[in-house]
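To make this tangible, this section ends with a sequence with its structure tokens:
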Amino acid sequence: MKTLYATKAGLPLRAVAKGTMPRDLLSRRRHTHHALDDAVEQAELLANLMAWQGPASARLPE
């Protein structure tokens, strides 16, 4: 997911961490460290990343 975010955001991979992602991409679920909860949280992050068009400043005008 780091690579997907870095690519869409136009950032080098070394500059990316979960804490650098826009808040609206992250899951709203509380991080519990329980396997099922963590899997759902990661699935939500992936879905949000797949739908994300990238930062507004990087988009070309239509």
